[in-house]
Design brief:
Keywords: Kinase, Membrane, Transferase, Transmembrane, Transmembrane helix, Two-component regulatory system. Helix 3 packs antiparallel against helix 4 and helix 5 packs parallel to helix 7. With 363 residues, the protein is α+β, with helices and mostly antiparallel strands. It folds into 2 domains: 177 residues, no CATH class; 112 residues, Heat Shock Protein 90 (2-Layer Sandwich). Helices cover 68% and strands 9% of the residues. The chain contains 11 helices and 5 strands. A 5-stranded mixed β-sheet has the order 1-2-3-5-4.
Length: 363
């Protein structure tokens, strides 16, 4: 909660600085105001100029406050409201040219950021450049070279605003790409984890269902026990899926070893285990638990093996069987396991032949 409060405070400070930097330029509007008041009490034209200047200042301030208040400030669509707003500002500038002359060029300095900020990047760059060009061209055509300073200032404002838009857009694009990649990574994680969790659980349920079917006529009490275990496994599977979706599922190597013994025993496979869960580096126990679950599920499902072996070392786990061997193509489970291992900085080696298959994870 404190972090969120600090983030909001940082955003508020950033907006305050942006407001100050954009509104401080209103000082340049003193030029048309001074011109309108020359000679003492302003004439009718001078009074009209003052009103237009104040209206222009209000419109500029509103546009800047609205722009910097929006965190996703870069627009990709050209709207008639933005075009009409900019046209209104330009119309005020033109009217001021007739009322007070060349001093009205100071208003063009304000039109530049409005065009660059309110329009999409490419039209904004083009419109801002046109305003700068007009602000530079008029003094040359009118031979009022002293007013070139307005064009020079407008050029600097244009470069600063265009650079701000460019880098802001780049940051927003990078943020969107990162968000999309994060969503895709999370989808892949959920799909991989659900596959690993359900693959093992459904295999165990299938084995116990077959066993219960065989026991129904021979030993109804034993069949009931197996059916009760099936119910328990189903509930555990549902809980595993829920926790996997929430990102809370953590595999325990010791638990996986016990489950492996139970599953292969019911499948009629002899299992030999060399080492214990405590022999494995604690950093890799969760990863090795995933590897053990996937390897044992494949043995029970596909290998048709009579014997399996698990070897545990500090930085390595090896699971082998004497089944039909590896076909040469990896399923979703092994591909997901390889991604887990490589993401953790390890390697997965899969070898197979007529004498069985070996899965080895080395960290």
């Amino acid at each position: 909660m404190l972090d969120k409060t600090e983030q909001e405070a940082t955003k508020a400070r950033g907006r305050a600085i942006a407001y100050a930097m954009s509104l401080v330029w209103l000082l340049f509007l003193t030029f048309p105001l001074i011109t309108a008041c020359q000679g003492g009490f302003p004439t009718l034209a001078g009074a009209a100029s003052i009103l237009l200047t104040l209206a222009f200042a209000a419109l500029y301030a509103i546009s800047m406050i609205r722009y910097f208040r929006d965190p996703d400030r870069i627009t990709e669509s050209l709207t008639w409201q933005s075009v009409a707003f900019i046209a209104l500002l330009i119309a005020i500038c033109v009217a001021q040219m007739f009322l007070i002359g060349t001093d009205a060029l100071s208003l063009a300095i304000f039109v530049v950021p409005v065009t660059v900020f309110l329009l999409p990047p490419r039209p904004g760059y083009l419109a801002g450049a046109c305003v700068v060009f007009a602000t530079l061209a008029y003094p040359l055509l009118a031979r009022e070279f002293w007013s070139l300073s307005f064009g020079i200032i407008a050029s600097g404002v244009f470069l600063g605003c265009a650079g701000s838009v460019f880098f802001t857009k780049s940051a927003l694009d990078d943020s969107r790409v990162a968000s999309q990649e994060a969503v895709l990574d999370e989808r892949e994680r959920v799909a991989r984890d659900i596959h690993d969790v359900l693959g093992h659980t459904l295999t165990a349920i299938a084995l116990k269902s077959e066993l219960a079917e065989r026991l129904v006529d021979k030993d109804s009490a034993a069949a009931k026990r197996e059916i009760a275990l099936i119910t328990q496994l189903s509930r555990e599977g549902i809980a595993d899926v829920r926790s996997t979706v929430l990102g809370l599922r953590v595999r325990q190597l010791g638990v996986e070893l016990e489950q492996a013994r139970s599953v292969v025993r019911e499948a009629g496979v002899d299992l030999t285990v060399f080492g214990e869960a405590d022999d494995v580096d604690p950093r890799y126990r969760i990863l090795f638990a995933w590897a053990l679950r996937e390897a044992m599920t494949n043995i029970v499902r596909h290998a048709h093996a009579s014997h399996a072996r698990i070897t545990l070392h500090n930085h390595r786990i090896e699971v082998s069987d004497d089944g039909v061997g590896f076909s040469g193509t990896s399923g979703n489970g092994l591909r997901g396991l390889r991604e887990r291992v490589e993401d953790a900085g390890g390697s997965l080696t899969l070898t197979g032949g007529n004498d069985g298959t070996t899965v080895q994870v080395q960290m």
